[in-house]
Design goal:
- With 228 residues, the chain is α+β, with helices and mostly antiparallel strands.
- It folds into two domains: 5-119, 2-Layer Sandwich (Beta-Lactamase), CATH 3.30.450.20; 130-227, Alpha-Beta Plaits.
- It is 41% helix and 25% strand.
- It contains nine helices and eight strands.
- The strands form two sheets. A five-stranded antiparallel sheet has the order 2-1-5-4-3, with helices on both faces. Strands 6-8-7 form a three-stranded antiparallel sheet, sandwiched between helices.
- Strand 7 and strand 8 (206-212) form a beta hairpin.
- Helix 6 (166-173) packs across helix 7 (175-192).
- It is elongated.
Length: 228
């Protein structure tokens, strides 16, 4: 049975996934309606890489397919796209090499907006590795960073900050005041210690800081300066 050409055209046009056809120079030859909604503009005749905040990386991605360096006929790219409307979106692109197809000689790309997924992932990471009160890392984050340094054979100095009589503050003035004390100390540590320091609130009124690549002699005055 010979299927009419318009049958396939209708399928591609109705796809909820953005679909592109690009030539060897990554110029868009065709974009379905979903693609133009994703990028918020007419796409045909435009360089595909021009939509990305890192166009060089996108160009290298297409070039690797053209030059046959891809490990398989299909490979993917993730990157940030800025539309004409000013919306920043994170997009995942899947590519299928169809350059060897007779009378086609092009690359087929599909793109999906993964912005919401990335946001959820960041929220989960922040919840798992962040202290919700102070915005610093938590015990799990600190342990993970320390393990990474240890496995890499890196040296680091360690400082521990423990608030005296913090339980007394909570008991006498209430947890709202205690929380404000913790936030104030966390901000002071962030402002006073080097930007390379790995800071975390481990428990109650206890804070810890790692100084990668530094010895105790290098950092012995830092904790004192932070609390002055």
């Amino acid at each position: 049975m010979n299927t009419p050409e318009y049958f396939y055209q209708t399928i591609v046009a109705r796809l909820p996934t953005a679909a592109f056809v690009v030539d060897r120079s990554a110029t868009i030859l065709y974009a379905n309606p979903a693609a133009e909604v994703l990028f918020n503009e007419h796409c045909a005749g435009v360089a595909f890489s021009g939509f990305f905040t890192d166009p060089a990386r996108c160009e290298a991605f297409v070039c690797s397919i053209v030059e046959g360096h891809a490990a398989s006929p299909s490979q993917s790219l993730e990157g940030d796209v800025l539309s004409d409307a000013g919306d920043m979106r994170h997009v995942k692109v899947e590519a299928v090499n169809a350059l060897d197809v007779a009378d086609f000689d092009a690359i087929v790309l599909s793109a999906i907006d993964t912005t919401a997924q990335r946001w959820r992932e960041k929220q989960l990471i922040a919840k798992a590795f962040g202290d919700q009160l102070t915005g610093l890392g938590n015990r799990a984050m600190f342990a993970d960073e320390a393990k990474t340094l240890q496995q890499g054979g890196s040296t680091a100095a360690l400082a521990i900050f423990d608030i005296d009589r913090f339980k007394h503050v909570n008991d006498r003035y209430g947890h709202a005041v205690g929380d404000q004390v913790l936030k104030t100390i966390a901000n002071r540590l962030v402002q006073s210690l080097p930007g390379t320091a790995i800071l975390a609130r481990c428990d109650g009124g206890e804070f810890v800081a790692l100084f990668p690549g530094q010895s105790l002699d290098d950092t012995q005055r830092l904790p004192e300066n932070a609390l002055e």
